[in-house]
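In this supplementary section we document a worked example of the pipeline. Step one takes a protein sequence of length 417 as its only input; no multiple sequence alignment statistics are reported here. Step two produces a three-dimensional model, which step three serialises into structure tokens for compact storage. The input and output of this example are shown verbatim.
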Amino acid sequence: MRRASLRCIRRSGPDDAVTSTGATSLVLIFAAIAAAPIIADLLARWVRVPSVVIEIAAGVVLGPALHWVHLDDVINVLANFGLAALMFLAGMEIDLPRVAGRPLNMALTGWGISLLLGVGVGVAMIPLDGAHSGLIVGLAITTTALGTLLPILRDAGELGTEFGTNVLAGASVGELGPIVAISLLLSSERPARTVAVLLGFVLLTVFAAWIALRGRGQRLTRLIEDTLTTSGQLLVRIVVLFLAFMVWVAFELGLDTLLGAFAAGMVFRLFSAGGSEREAELVEAKLHGLGFGFLIPIFFVVSGVKFDLQAITDDPTLLLFAVGFLALFLVVRGIPAALLYRSGTGAERSALALYLATELPLVVVITSIGVEAGRLEPGKAAALVTAAMLSVLIYPVAAGALRARTASPAVVEAMEA
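The serialised model returned by step three reads:
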């Protein structure tokens, strides 16, 4: 019977080759994901390289370099889920009471300055590439890769420090601000309508937050507790449902779906505050395992597979653009925040600038929107993505080295672990 079933599977019809290619690509992607932390550990003898960098590089090698991985609908859906999970976990890390006050005010001011500088860069590019291209480039260089920085900061033991709070606040605004700007400027040709829709989405999010803060009924509390370690996993299922719902709402309203995922994470954090400490620890571990262990690495590998390597090889001068964009990340996004962070030492201010100048997911999203809309040349998009990948490779490593000079012994021990 088992052999007969296997024969039936093998005789699946004319799409066998596509299915086989997709399955092979998935295996290679999962192999790259599993190998990434091992390679990072081996490289740690000489330089600390975040796993996300290795995952993206693996995607470039397996995709455009060797042509071993080919994307299909299944892989693309998994990658989109990975991006949504990345934004959800980023939103879940936003502790508003913790970052409220000076850290948040400083973050908002710093991003406001970055936005003005980015728009200035975009205006300066108008004679070269046109107004639309300048706007896209100017917006892309104001982002911060909060989702990318989270595992780096967590592994370094920084999230519980005052410095980590300032990085978290700055990165949160650097993630949320561009997402809102994308919804307003790039997702619709009717800004007035988009503003009204965005306000409606904000009201919906506030209402969901109010519901989350009202407390739980006894029956729901009991069900959640009883299924924490069983196959029921009610709270995890609620999280997945709420994430899907908020992404769907954002999509139906014509907003960027990243906004829905980010808002879902913020609301769920409020909901989880009403549970026990045991529940919070277990659910957080499960969500991190599902996100960082499965879905999110797929997004990073697929981002590497989608990288336009051909554009770079055809026009090597684009590497000069990439270096220029890399410098702009630091000048436009990092330095304004460092100048505002007056309470820290020189090394801490420099480390803050380097962390906040780390960009990637939103650069990929913004450039993809620009290319699909015909507003950005594929070569310029490849140069921006190259700069973003370099920023993830260079800036966090340099920031960690600077922090090792001034951080507390506990943080230093976490960095060296």
